[in-house]
Specification:
With about 240 residues, this protein is of the alpha+beta class. It has helices at about 20-30, 90-95, 115-125, 130-155, 160-170, 185-195, 200-210, 225-235; strands spanning about 5, 35-40, 45-50, 55-65, 65-70, 75-85, 90, 105, 110-115, 180, 215, 220-225. Helix 1 (about 20-30) packs antiparallel against helix 4. The longest helix is centred in the middle third of the chain and has 26 residues, at about 130-155. The protein is elongated.
Length: about 240
Amino acid sequence: MPGAQQKEFDEPLPVIDRRLEDLEALLHELRAFNVGNLHSVHGRGVVLFAEGEAVRGAYILRTGRATVSISSSEGRVVMLRVVQPGDVVGLNAVLRNDSYDTTVKTLEPCRTDFIPRAQLIKLMQHSGAGAWAILKLLSRELNELTDRAKLVLLPQTVSGRLARLLLEWSKENGSATSAQFDKVLTHEQIGQMICTSRETITRLLAIFSRQEVIRVTSDSILIRDRLALEKLALG
């Protein structure tokens, strides 16, 4: 675990969002019960934990982004979501005291806080507020996974799934008519999010660009015609 050191939970969260209120509540309880953590700096492409590994604890993402994925015995990968600063990963495995059921891999350099399972369980046993904060974080994760299932299963066409994914990514960055956001995933990774191939993603992005629905650069995607993209998302 590169760059690891013990520290207090006193570092402010890098972003302000209503969804972070539950995490703030958890951090407050961790401080109150003198729970230590391991602060680490990770480079791009580092696996925080892998599907099937014995559970060690949970990670709080302080900065950067990471992917959460599952894989089949044949090696097919499905990306469930991209976690952002303030997200907690590994809680489900901590509570089940079982192996991790997903793989979490950094998309870019990240800083994390690691909380061992034993300390999280002790907190839940002795702090009703801490237990409630953890349950609310798990509920939010379940809601996000449900939304991801809808994204993959409801649109009948691959182009509809891609359009819906682009609209989802634009929510936090967009205005009423246009939005530009970072292109942090490769075409292969985008395909893993909507269960299709890299070649299909490349072809559909080119079609959307020719139709002037979006504009794609090496590091960003601009939604030029939101109404047209919303119509495609119904497909």
